[in-house]
Amino acid sequence: MGTTTPPRTLAEALRARGDESLAGLLRARPDLLNPVPNDITQLATRAGTRASVVRALEHLDRFALQTAEALAVAPDPAPYGTLLSLLTGDGLDDGDQRDDAGAAITTALPGALATLREQALVWGEDDRLRLVRTARELLVPSPQHPSPTGLGPTVAEATAGMSPGRLQEILTATGLPATHDPVSAVAALAALFTDRTRMAELLDTAPAEALSVLDRLVWGPPYGEVTPNPTPPVKWLRDRGLLLPVSTRTVVLPREAALHLRAGRAHRVPEPVPPAVAAAATRDPQAVDRAAAGQAFTALSTVEELLKLWNGGGPAILRAGGLSVRELKRTANALDVTEPIAAFWVELAYGAGLLASDGEPEERYAPTPASDEWLDLSAEDRWTHLAAAWLAATRTPGLVGGQDAKGRALSALGPELDRSAAPDVRRRVLALFAELPPGTAPDAETLLRRLRWERPLRGAATPEASTEGTDLRSRLALWTLNEAELLGITGRGALSAQARALLDEGPDAAAALLAPLVPEPLDHVLLQADLTAVAPGPLERPLAETLSVLADVESKGGATVYRFTPGSVRRALDAGQAAADLHAFLAAHSRTPVPQPLSYLIDDVARRHGHLRIGSASAYVRCDDEAVLNEILADRRSTGLRLRRLAPTVLASQADPGSLLEALRDMGYAPAAESAEGDVLITRAGARRTPPRTPPVPVPEGPPVPDATLLGAAVRAIRAGDTAATVIRKDTSEGPSSTRPPGSLPRTTSAETLATVQAAAMTGSAVWIGYVNADGAASQRVIAPVRVEGGFVTAYDHTADEVRTYPLHRITGVAELAEDGKG
Question: With contact defined as beta carbons under 8 Å apart, do 128 and 79 qualify?
Fold first, then answer.
């Protein structure tokens, strides 16, 4: 096709593009690559399918979408000047369209048009711009789906099927010359509505009430209901064709009349420039970084506490999947946070691969083996792991507590929380943060306005979409603001330097910036006389783990307070520690002397620990001190245990060992469990782990964006297939070439096929072949034979862009290319 010949179809327009332009189309619309089109014609067909066009429209910014909407109500094809006039107006209004706004539209329109062209939504030269038919169908007005511009159908569309007599009545009422040709009558009425002078003269004669009716319809929706006996103003408008009937009770303001009333503008407020994100506050960047680092450390502590909470086996999994409301509330109480925030931490740990189902018949959540590896990392590396998992996750904890489409409650860790738009919204929100100077906190409302400008069609303007899409993106953005603050991505509302590094350079750079801001773990505590220990900062992991067994956490904050109780000391003894071990541990890790009350508490509990022994009979109690057993039997609280004496030092019970152990502890004793061999059983806290698990895979929002290698290969394959489909060839079949359907495979005898490919191999020329592979799939190819022997032809395949060998018996036919076939 010559460079001066305008394209007649979208396929021709795509064929005239360069490889870089085709690659840009496939990059912007990756759904067109699944599978790779055979040729340009198939690419154009696929680019015009409804699902693909809807997906492309949803990724347009507001001004590009407004440009497409203006083309949808413009004549087809439309010159560039007409499109520009629909966006800026005709300049004959009362001046409410400012000159600077028109200049901004004039400046931005070429870029918006280039975007539409690149995505194959618009094609043709500037004097004949065409919106693809499917996009026009989606954006063109109808009673069921009014145009986003608020414009109604044209006069020709609204009067289709109207009787010639009624058309004559309208012409007479408007003072136009009568004509018996309906086409001429419609054209005359449309010409009147598009003539500024004559239309103004007509409206000057309209009653004031009629003008009020037009004012209500002019910016849409253009449809209105009328009674069988309309009011005089409506009758005046209907008689002059300013309101045309759609049904017996519905009228519409025709497009040409509405455009006159709008001064030629398709949109009330064109938005050629993205709204700026305003600053809500400006803070010291170093203070922002320190605040974010402090919250990052809190996030790490919270996730560690959650893992510890579920260490011995977490809550049971609902039959439908996820956590029950009661278990989520219990977890929130244990973490001392609200339930929505608890859902965020649970989902974060799950998304990072630190929690998963244990896979047992009675399924429960438990830490994964990867959680132990995570705990061994430095604080900054643990944080970058969580932050990266959050950025990529499609799990949306903000939905917890809501309902799905069927009215069922959405639970934490449930199967219905994936939202494919979440990663894109999170990254875009943080990118808008990053565009502001360091230390600047953005205004949330202007940030949401910017997001809506960038993706206005998330469910708002196509029949397939619902308004929930736009609302979801706004909610995702608000959740992102809250979650980023919880995670330490932002501090005091502004993006931290470590988060900027994470977005721009990766986890290593972010960890390097965070490391100096994270407090170093301590190797000591401060013991106090009131049986408490104060940790003035984060503790080293071995110290923290041992202390959490020996004492209970009483309060958290800048310093953590632990309290020693008989129950906590007994818990340490149950874990295999001796009293001497506990005394040595406290002396080694306390910066203050070990208080005497604490030493007495440890010795007192240790003296009584294991004095009673619990085994299985169902269960038994044995003790060398008969008086103790007599005391137990005499205690009314032991009645439910149904104890009986088997020997002076042995009692038997019908309760199981675990229940018996807990009951005696509740009675104030300190029994120890023993094995069948009589050895004391040591209970160690938290050893339950799931089998190795991979983190949940994010649900993609669509086909992944192809890399440069795949794009290059796809473009070459499409070009080669197009060459095979469109190359000019000599017709060797019998009869005129017009009798063979276009694109059909050539048919030649075996002898003709062999002779033709041998001749092509000798002359080095290319031929066109029909080929059927081993699976029976037929295709057409352009090959340059190199060698023909043994029933095979070795040739350079222009379609595949490589040398291949073909069995001659699978070639259905061969045809020589015409001399200008490569043009």
Answer: yes
- 163, pLDDT greater than 80: yes
The Cα angle at residue 205 between residues 201 and 209, in degrees rounded to 5 = 130
Which ranges of 155-284 would DSSP assign to H, the alpha helix?
155-158, 164-174, 182-194, 196-204, 208-217, 232-239, 255-261
Residue 740 scores a pLDDT above 70? no
Q: What are phi and psi of 789, to 5 degrees?
A: -165, 150
Phi/psi at 698 (nearest 5 deg)? Answer: -60, 145
- Give Dmax over CA atoms of the chain in angstroms: 125
Query: CB 506: neighbour CB atoms within 10 A?
Result: 12
3-state SS, one letter per residue, for 248-270 = CCEEECCHHHHHHHCCCCCCCCC
Sequence-distant (≥ 6) Cβ neighbours of residue 756 within 8 angstroms: 732, 748, 767, 814, 815, 816
Tally the residues of the chain.
823
Full 3-state SS string of 587-642: HHHECCCCCHHHHHHHHHHHHHCCCCEEECCCEEEECCCHHHHHHHHHCHHHHHHC
3-class DSSP assignment, residue 415: coil
Give the DSSP per-residue string, 499-545.
Answer: HHHHHHT-HHHHHHHHGGGSPPPBS-BEEETTTEEEESSPBPHHHHH
pLDDT confidence of residue 674: 81
Q: Using the predicted structure, report yes or no on whether residue 521 has a pLDDT greater than 90.
A: no
Tokens of 574: 């149950």
Please work out, in degrees rounded to the nearest 5, the angle formed at the alpha carbon of residue 392 by the alpha carbons of 389 and 397.
75
What phi and psi, each to the nearest 5 degrees, are found at residue 608? -90, -15
CA distance to 7, 20, 683, per residue, from 126 (Å): 12, 21, 80
**Distance, C-alpha 700 to centroid of its chain:** 7
pLDDT confidence tier of residue 97, bands split at 50, 70 and 90: very low
User: Percent of the chain scored above 70 by pLDDT?
Assistant: 90
Burial (CB count within 10 angstroms: exposed 0-12, middle 13-18, buried 19+), residue 291: buried
Token output for 528:
């106090």
> pLDDT category, 47, cuts 50, 70, 90?
very high
Positive or negative torsion for Cα 287, 290, 293, 295: negative
Token couple for 610: 């294991």
Instruction: Answer left, alpha or beta for residue 246, where phi above 0 means left and psi between -120 and 50 means alpha.
Output: alpha
Mean pLDDT along residues 566-582: 87
Model pLDDT for residues 381-409, shown as the tens digit of each residue: 999 999 999 999 999 999 998 888 888 88
The first and second tokens of residue 361, run together, are 């018949």
91: left (phi over 0), alpha (psi -120 to 50) or beta: left
Is pLDDT at 792 greater than 50 in this prediction? yes
Is a pLDDT exceeding 60 seen at residue 607?
A: yes
Q: How far apart are CA 151 and CA 221, in angstroms?
A: 7
CA-based nearest residue to 22, from 31, 800, 13: 13
Residue 336, token pair as written in the block: 């001392």
Kindly write down the DSSP assignment for every residue of 448-480, as one continuous string.
Answer: HHHHHHHSTTSSSSSTT--THHHHHHHHHHHHH
pLDDT value of position 106? 92
DSSP 8-state secondary structure symbol assigned to residue 397: G
Three-state DSSP at 772 gives strand
- Burial of 660-681, coded b for 16+ CB within 10 Å and e otherwise, reads bbebbeeeebbbbbbeeeeeee
Give the whole-angstrom CA distance, residue 442 versus residue 440: 6
How far apart are the C-alpha atoms of 49 and 438, rounded to whole Å? 45
Amino acid at residue number 569: V
